[in-house]
Structure formats: C-alpha cells, structure tokens
Task: inverse folding
C-alpha cells in the first residue's frame, strides 16, 4: 500500500522535520561555549532543504490522498520561505546576545514555523491548512514571548496568542461550515461542489470566516489590531519572520483558496477584498505617520503592504497574481534588509526609537545606505524592487477596471514616502549624539550586500523574474 | 556596433555615479574630476546630437531599442526628436555648469556628487525615454535625489535672522508634492495604456496605435486632466507651485540650477510629449483652462516675486512666473506658440541657471541672501555683477537674448486665440523688469559696504567657465535662433497639426519672417496636411 514515491515528494518537509530534532539535540547536548556557531548548523539545514527542493520535479502532482499538492506554485513559495528563514537565521546570529542561553531552542522553533509555512505552500486540504497555520502560529507565539525578562515581549506573545486563537476559532468554524456543505475538506471536492448548483448561506459564511482567519495572518484591516504591540515587543528576528514569512504564508493560503476553491464565487469576494484593501492601505500608512518606534512604524507599514497585496488579489486576473508574486519577492528583500539594519544597529545606537537613528549615516555609511535603499524600495521608488511590485499591482488593478482602488493605492505611495523619508531625514540630515563608528560583522555586510543587490536587480532587470513568476503562479 | 548617442548621454552620468560610489570618500579631488568628465561627455554627446539632427527627415533620431519585458510589453527605447534634443542640450549645459559650480561644496563631497549625478541621469532619462514605463521610471528617479540634496547641503530660508522655511521642510514639501503629482500622472498613464488596447508601453507604437484607433473623447476628456495636473505640479502650474520657490531657495546653488533650469521643464515636456502627443482631443478640450491658469502663473508669480526679499526666493517665484509663459505657449495650440514654449524652456533654463550660480557665489562670499543687507557688490565682484546684469536683462526679455525671441513667439502664437492673456503676459514682462532691476540695483550698485570688503570675485578662468558657457549659449541662440527653431519646428508642427489640423496660419506671421523658419514651414505644411 505504501509506495516509496511519496516520501521523495516530501523531502523538503522531511529535512526540516529532521532539523527540528537536530537543533533540539544540539541545544541540549552542546556545551554553552559552542552554541555561538549553532547558526551555521541551522543554515546547513536550510541548505539541505533547498537542495531537496531543487531536486524535485516541476510537474504538478498530488500526494497523500491529495491533501498535498506539489506544483510550480508551491516550489516558488517554498523557495521564498527557505530564503526568508535563512536570512532570519543570520539575523538571529546578530541578535543572539539578547536570547541568553536558549539559542538552539529558538532555532528549533524557527524550523517548526518554517515547516508550517512549507505545508501551507502545498496545501490542498482544509485540515492540513489548519495544521500548517497552527504549526506556524504556535511557534511564533512562543518566539514572540522569547525575551522572558522583557515585559513588552511577554505582552507581545500574550496578545498574539489571544488574538491568534480567536482567529483560529473563526477559521475552524468556517472549515466546519464548508465541511457541512460539501462533505469533505479537500479543496478540489469543495471547489467542485461550489461550482454546481446553488450555494447555501452557510457555505458563504464559511468562506468569509476562513477569510477572517487568514486576514489575521496577513494583518489586513480589521484583523490588524495585534500588529503594533507585537511588532514593538517581540524580538526583532521574530518580527522580521512575522512580517515577511507569516504574511507571505497568509497570502499563499489566500491565493490557493480564493483562486482555487472559491474561484467560482469571485464576484462575491473580489469587491469585499477591494474594500478591505483600500481600508488596509489607508489605515496602515496613515497610522504609521505619528509613530516614534521604528518597529511599531514598520508594523503599520506592513499593514499598508498587506493592503497592496490584497489589491493584487482583488483583481481576479493572472496579471494580478503575477503582480502579487513579484510584490512578495520585492517585499521580502526590502523588508528583510530594513530589519537587518534595525538589528545590526540597535545595540550601537542604544534603542529602537526613531530618534536613535539620528546621524546614523555619519556612524555607519553601510547601515544607513542599506536602510535608505530598503525604505525607498518599500515606498516604491525606482530603480528599486518595490517600484516594480507596486507598478504591476496598480497596472493589474487598472486593467480589472477598479480605477478608484488604483488611485487610492497610488496616493498611498506618497503617504508612505513621507514616513519613510522621516527616517531617512534622521539618518542623513540630523546630527548624531556620538560619532563613534559602528563596527559591522562580516556576515552582516555580506547579507546586506546580497539583499541590496537583490533589490536593485528586481528593480532593473524584471524580465527573468517576471517570466518565472508568471509561469509558476498559474491556476 | 557604435555606441548610440542617446545611450552615451544617459550612461555617462550613471556610470559616473557608480564610479563615485566606489571611490573612497577621502579623495574629493578625484570625485570632482570624475563628475566633470562624465558631465562633459554628456555635453559633447548632446552637442553632437543637436548638430547631427536631421531636420529634413524629422521624427525620432539617435534611437536605441532593447526589449526589456515581454508582458506587459516594455522596451528600453531611447531617442530624440526636435523638442527633446533641444532640452537634452539644455540639461547637458546645466548639468555641466552645475558640476563646475559644485566645486564650492566642501562637505560630504562623495555623497553629494553621487546624488547629483543620479539626478542628472534621471532627467536625461526622462528627455530620452520613448517608453512610458521608462519615462516614469526616470521621472521618479529624478525627484528622489532632490530630498537628500536639499536636506543635507541646502540652507534654511531666513529673513532678518528668523527662519521662514527650514531646509527639511522645503525638501519634504518638494518630494511629497512631486510624488503626489507623479502618482496622479501614473494613474492617468496606466488608464491610457489599458484603454488604448495597444498592449505596449512604447511611446512611438502607442502614438501610432492611437492615431489609427483614437480613444473616445469622453475618455480623453477624463485622462487629460490627470496627466496635465500630475505633470503640472512639477511644471509648476498655479496653484500647485508652492513647493517650487521654497525648494529653489533652500537648495544649494548647483541644485537650484538644475531644479529651476531643468527639473521644472520636465513637467511642461511631459505635457507636450504625453498629454498633447497621446490625447489630442483631450488637449483641445482642456487647453483653454491651462491658458487661464498660466496667466495666473505669470501675474501672480511676478507679483509675489516683487514682494520677496530673499534673492533665491525672488528667482524662484520669477521661475514659476516664467514657466507660465511656457504653459501658455503650449496652450496656444499653434506651431508658433509651441516653438516659443520650447525655446523659452531652453532660454529660461540657461538664464535661471546663470542667476542661481551667481546668487550662490554671492551667498557663499557674503553669507547672506537678504536683499536689504546687500549692496555695492559691483565694487568687489565686477565679474559677478556683469553676469548679474546679463541675467537680469535676459530674464526681462531684452532683444539679443533667446528669452526675447521665445517670449515674442509665444505672444504671437497666442494672439489670435487668447488676446487678453497675451496682454497680461506682456504686462508680466514689465513686472519681471521691475523686480529684476531692483535686484540688480540692490545687490550690485550703490556705495561699497565695508562689511563686504573681504568678498572675493570669481578670478580664475576655470571658475569663470560655467558663467561664460551659459552667457555664450544665451546670446548665441538669442542672436541667431534660426537653427534651433528649425529643429524644434520639425517636431512641434506635426504635433500641433494632429491636435488642431484646421488652425489657419495667422496673418501676422509674415512680419516675423526673419525669425520663423519659413522653409521648414513650407516643406512641412503640405506633408502634414490631410493626405
């Protein structure tokens, strides 16, 4: 009955599973003095998983009674999740000092979160969707509260846990309603059931409840309330993973569900998505303006970016999906560059308020330059990655006829530029309190160079990326 | 394959910025030399481009096309027609002289020249791009470096020791205004692209497609104001101009030179190239409104300039007043008016660059730009005073300068359709003369003030180069405008013919036979009439 074949399809997930145990064992067995190099072991795990991913065949197939689906779509996003995790691992290396003794356990949790996102990338069944989401979120609950002596971190973990549990409740309720309607949790079966005959109100309610559960993940209005406090309190590498990995996982699940299961109901969800997208963009960007803490500000900015992603989803077109794929890639590079600088600078500048960044350019040209490029890319300025992402999303939105939404999105570019530039102003225009240069580790320089290079490449040479994304993200 | 001229012009400053980026910051002399080399390569390229522009064939020349993205279809398409070749030359002149004037910058030289060359690249890109995507790409790229350039190296606008506008405020206001304008225009461009159904961002193909399958007039009526207002912000069109004088005043002089000299021209250029070129019917419907607004520019800007006491604010408001003439020339919808508008862009750019250069020198030496504090500087600064008088004369439109020819053409081109605005415009010239003469008197003439005894003039030939280059260009084109007008005319006439094919040629033209390229008229009139 059990053929040998499915295990090959699961190789990436299996490697990550194994590495969860490896990290746990390493944390327990290695002497304290050797734990400084644990990050290399973690990176090795990512490398092994990446190697497995590259080996898998590109043709779409389903496995394990079609609860998992392996296709170019899942491969693309698995690649992005692995890349995100690799960079977060290097971030954690820089951040290690704050994590005290349990660095190994932290890496272990990072791998469980990664496993959750990998499952979400190829999910084809609502039960597994729930499993993947919970695996991801539970790891993040613990990681958010990882600085046990810092009350803000504990508060962040607690808030995330409570609001997250509520949203999981929505999700489960929605899944239950859909199961009642279709008699199955499998995506294809439900899609088929929705495509034929009338759709009862309970099934529609199920769809919206599931959407609410996922809206929490991507931090869309009105499910965004947890964002500012969690972003401010949680350890910075966790915030980086939350803002990129977790948001991406939410979008991936939404893409699978909206464009797969609920494709026939697009007339119903597209308009609602468009409205939510407008509200999300406006709220995130306007609320970011008065912030004084950089992590809080980036939290609101990430809400704004969720708005753009929803805008791309609301177009119900292949161009919109491609735009979302490009936007996520650009967002990954830009946002991780920004968070990397926040981590690398935080010890030297003594804090995370915006005023701590005064005169950063005089203390470290590399950090200030990378933050400058990352922020401008987030704002959407050419020739940087974010510009192309925003342009593609706006273009797809105009093509879908939602001119008003594109106009709101365009105005938000100017709003967001204002608060990003306020950080640039502090770095370049204001005088520093001390001019002591900030020493950077070699890994920091390498990773920042890689991220900035990626931002520039995505902004200038679009064709190869665009072609790959367009062919991978098909429904 | 030889390197296409347009690519050379664009790449020289871009490569310069990259090279400066990798040069160690403790070698300012090398960095300056790199910047001068790159900007002079562009200048030589621009001179060759205009010299070899073939007026007999017209159209886009020195083209380069590299396919960039397949879906949506985007190509790296560069090229120059008669209008852009003139503006490329203007920008090359302003950029070259601006780099020379930038020798006065002593702080954070590396970062300064990096951003400065980035700005130069962006503006060249806008003038050269023949693809909507790259047009917008370079347009935004030109706006953003202004923020650090003003914010770091600029100066607060003070009056009697009280800060009226801080440089941070000016820089932020400029960036946000221009970005808001840009995104409004972007929505217009995307809407235009989608509704054209041509499936290409290529400007030439799009124009071809739209002349075969024009957009419905209701769509044109809706899209045109998005483009006109969006790009009008940078033009700067009244009442969206308020970022501009403050930005001029707060920016360091070489940046003001580019800002007033070229950056503002991006707006009117974009209106000519995109709004007029792609939406002829929209232009017909909306341009009377633009004419009305442009009168406000001329008169309002002039009066506000009269009331100012900060030298850079005076020139700043004067610029927005003069750009009113450019907008009016565009709104006339006659070949004469458009020729005048483009020539005025060229002339005003050189004049205002000259003015900002010398005001910058005065400010560096005396540490004040407040007019009542200055006076008698002709005693210490004979060369600068001479340049100042020349700039004032050019600005007031005295014969002999390109400004005179350009303004005359604009008035002649607009007389038939809009006589009252023309009268207002002539009145505006008088206002210009009043405040310009007042500035010259207040700065240079009168008793020598003992406080300025230590002030140094521009002495070395090297320092004099930028001033001399600008004055020679102004006088050269002013006394012999024919060749340049012929080049502009080759491209502006077909454009106007597409929008207003039935405009009768005004009778007065005969009187301006010496200025207007008659042979160009005659050779193009039949060709572009209805086939």
Result:
């Amino acid at each position: 009955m059990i053929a040998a074949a499915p295990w090959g399809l699961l190789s990436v997930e299996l490697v990550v599973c194994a590495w969860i145990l490896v990290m746990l064992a390493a944390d327990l067995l290695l002497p304290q003095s050797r734990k400084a190099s644990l990050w290399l072991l973690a990176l090795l795990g990512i490398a092994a998983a990446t190697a497995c991913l590259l080996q898998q065949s590109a043709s779409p197939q389903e496995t394990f009674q079609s609860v998992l689906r392996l296709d170019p779509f899942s491969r693309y996003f698995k690649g992005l999740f692995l890349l995100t995790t690799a960079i977060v691992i290097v971030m954690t290396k820089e951040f290690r000092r704050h994590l005290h003794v349990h660095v190994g356990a932290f890496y272990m949790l990072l791998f469980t979160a990664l496993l959750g996102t990998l499952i979400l990338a190829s999910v084809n069944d609502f039960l597994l969707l729930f499993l993947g989401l919970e695996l991801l979120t539970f790891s993040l609950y613990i990681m958010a509260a990882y600085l046990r002596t810092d009350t803000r971190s504990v508060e962040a973990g607690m808030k995330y846990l409570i609001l997250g549990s509520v949203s999981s409740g929505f999700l489960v309720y929605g899944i239950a309603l859909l199961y009642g309607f279709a008699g199955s949790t499998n995506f294809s079966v439900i899609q088929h059931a929705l495509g034929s005959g009338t759709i009862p109100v309970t099934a529609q309610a199920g769809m919206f409840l599931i959407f609410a559960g996922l809206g929490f993940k991507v931090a869309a209005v009105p499910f965004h309330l947890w964002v500012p406090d969690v972003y401010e309190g949680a350890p910075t590498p966790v915030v980086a993973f939350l803002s990129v990995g977790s948001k991406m996982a939410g979008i991936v699940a939404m893409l699978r569900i909206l464009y797969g299961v609920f494709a026939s109901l697009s007339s119903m969800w597209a308009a609602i998505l468009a409205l939510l997208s407008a509200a999300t963009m406006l709220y995130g960007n306007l609320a970011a303006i008065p912030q004084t803490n950089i992590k809080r500000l980036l939290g609101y900015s990430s809400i704004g970016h969720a708005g753009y992603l929803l805008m791309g989803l609301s177009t119900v077109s292949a161009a919109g999906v491609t735009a979302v794929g490009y936007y996520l890639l650009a967002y990954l590079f830009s946002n991780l560059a920004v968070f990397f600088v926040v981590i690398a600078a935080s010890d030297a500048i003594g804090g995370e308020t915006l005023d701590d960044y005064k005169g950063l350019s005089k203390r470290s040209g590399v950090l200030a330059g990378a933050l400058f490029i990352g922020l401008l890319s987030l704002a959407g300025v050419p020739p940087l990655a974010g510009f192309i992402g925003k342009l593609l999303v706006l273009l797809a939105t105009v093509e879908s006829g939602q001119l008003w939404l594109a106009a709101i999105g365009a105005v938000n570019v100017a709003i967001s530029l204002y608060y990003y530039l306020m950080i640039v102003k502090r770095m370049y225009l204001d005088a520093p309190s001390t001019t002591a240069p900030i020493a950077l580790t070699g890994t920091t320089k390498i990773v920042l160079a890689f991220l900035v290079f990626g931002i520039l490449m995505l902004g200038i040479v679009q064709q190869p990326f665009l072609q790959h994304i367009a062919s991978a993200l098909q429904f | 394959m030889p390197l296409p001229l347009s690519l050379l012009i664009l790449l020289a400053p871009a490569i310069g910025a990259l090279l400066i980026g990798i040069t160690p910051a403790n070698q300012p002399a090398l960095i300056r030399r790199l910047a001068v080399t790159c900007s002079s390569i562009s200048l030589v390229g621009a001179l060759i481009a205009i010299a070899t522009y073939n007026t007999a064939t017209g159209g886009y020349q020195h083209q380069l096309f590299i396919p960039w993205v397949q879906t949506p279809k985007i190509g790296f398409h560069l090229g120059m027609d008669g209008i852009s070749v003139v503006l490329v030359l203007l920008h090359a002149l302003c950029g070259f002289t601006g780099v020379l004037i930038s020798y006065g910058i002593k702080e954070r030289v590396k970062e300064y020249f990096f951003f400065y060359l980035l700005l130069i690249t962006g503006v060249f890109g806008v003038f050269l791009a023949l693809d909507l995507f790259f047009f917008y790409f370079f347009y935004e790229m030109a706006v953003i470096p202004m923020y650090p350039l003003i914010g770091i190296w600029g100066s607060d606008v003070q009056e009697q020791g009280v800060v009226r506008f801080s440089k941070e405020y000016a820089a932020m206001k400029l960036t946000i205004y221009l970005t808001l304008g840009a995104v409004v225009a972007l929505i217009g461009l995307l809407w235009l692209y989608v509704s054209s159904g041509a499936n290409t961002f290529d400007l030439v193909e799009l124009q071809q497609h739209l002349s075969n399958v024009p957009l419905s007039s209701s769509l044109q009526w809706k899209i045109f104001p998005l483009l006109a207002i969006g790009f009008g912000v940078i033009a700067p069109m009244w009442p969206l101009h308020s970022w501009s004088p403050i930005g001029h005043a707060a920016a360091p002089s070489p940046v003001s030179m580019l800002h007033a000299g070229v950056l503002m021209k991006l707006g009117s250029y974009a209106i000519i190239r995109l709004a007029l070129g792609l939406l002829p019917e929209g232009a017909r419907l909306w341009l009377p409104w633009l004419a009305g607004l442009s009168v406000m520019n001329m008169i309002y800007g002039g009066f506000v300039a009269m009331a100012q006491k900060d030298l850079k604010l005076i020139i700043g408001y004067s610029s927005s007043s003069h750009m009113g003439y450019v907008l009016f020339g565009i709104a006339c919808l006659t070949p004469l008016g458009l020729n005048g508008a483009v020539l005025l862009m060229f002339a005003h750019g050189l004049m205002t660059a000259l003015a900002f250069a010398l005001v910058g020198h005065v400010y560096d030496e005396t540490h004040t730009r407040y007019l009542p504090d200055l006076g008698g500087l002709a005693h210490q600064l004979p060369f600068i005073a001479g340049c100042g008088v020349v700039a004032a004369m050019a600005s007031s439109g005295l014969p002999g300068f390109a400004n005179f020819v350009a303004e005359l053409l604009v008035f002649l081109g607009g007389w038939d359709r809009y006589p009252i605005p023309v009268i207002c415009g002539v009145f505006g010239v008088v206002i210009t003369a009043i405040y310009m003469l007042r500035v010259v008197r207040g700065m240079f003439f009168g008793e020598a003030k003992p406080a300025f005894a230590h002030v140094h003039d521009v002495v070395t030939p090297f320092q004099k180069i930028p001033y001399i280059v600008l004055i020679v260009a102004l006088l050269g084109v002013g006394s012999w405008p024919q060749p340049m007008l012929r080049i502009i005319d080759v491209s502006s006439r077909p454009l106007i013919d597409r929008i207003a094919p039935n405009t009768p040629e005004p009778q007065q033209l005969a009187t301006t036979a010496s200025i207007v390229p008659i042979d160009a008229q005659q050779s193009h009139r039949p060709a572009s009439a209805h086939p």
The mean pLDDT of chain A is 89. The first helix of chain A runs from residue 5 to 9. Chain A touches chain B through 31 residues (CB under 8 Å). The first strand of chain A starts at residue 61 and ends at 63.
